[in-house]
Design brief:
mainly beta, four-stranded antiparallel sheet, globular, five-stranded mixed sheet, about 0% helix
């Protein structure tokens, strides 16, 4: 007998163009293990952490309320970025590393009704592992944040945290 090892396929949502649609609210468990790093030309959203680590993508449609995207409770030091626009021309909305204890990331954004937002999940310093993605909304109409059209998004900026990443999109 001959035994051949065949690598596992990458996880679902391995690239922006295959981002998995998730509803708001929702809870999704997943992994970045076996995923590939993204094209380095995708914006870092002011946060260089995790740019070369394996990443997976999800997407949701804005509800007109404040949506919180959380990776709290994940098994590794996560980095979270949220974009709008398109996969070929993504625009940063928010980014975070370490908003939660034990290295989980979290952002809250005013998600404009009908606009698609892309969630990029990766790890700090090439980390990979299992994550717990939770999307919640406060149910209160909001305005002035997020995207007003397919390419008119707010860029991420703010104070820098301990690993040199901005503290963007956190209420």
């Amino acid at each position: 007998y001959r035994c051949e090892c065949v690598p596992n396929p990458p996880p679902t949502g391995d690239g922006c163009d295959t981002a998995v649609l998730v509803p708001v609210p929702s809870v999704t468990d997943g992994t970045t293990i076996g995923a590939t790093p993204d094209d380095p030309s995708i914006p870092a959203c002011g946060n260089p952490a995790g740019l070369t680590s394996p990443s997976v993508w999800y997407r949701f449609v804005g509800t007109g309320t404040t949506v919180t995207i959380s990776l709290c409770g994940s098994s590794f030091d996560t980095v979270l970025r949220v974009y709008c626009g398109s996969c070929t021309n993504p625009t940063c909305v928010a980014a975070n590393d370490d908003a939660c204890p034990l290295g989980g990331s979290q952002v809250s954004i005013c998600a404009t009704v009908g606009i698609t937002y892309y969630i990029r999940i990766s790890g700090f310093g090439n980390n990979a592992g299992a994550f717990h993605l939770t999307l919640t909304e406060d149910g209160i109409p909001c305005s002035g944040g997020g995207c007003s059209g397919p390419t008119s998004c707010v860029d991420c900026s703010g104070p820098v945290l301990s690993e040199n990443e901005p503290n963007c999109g956190i209420p």
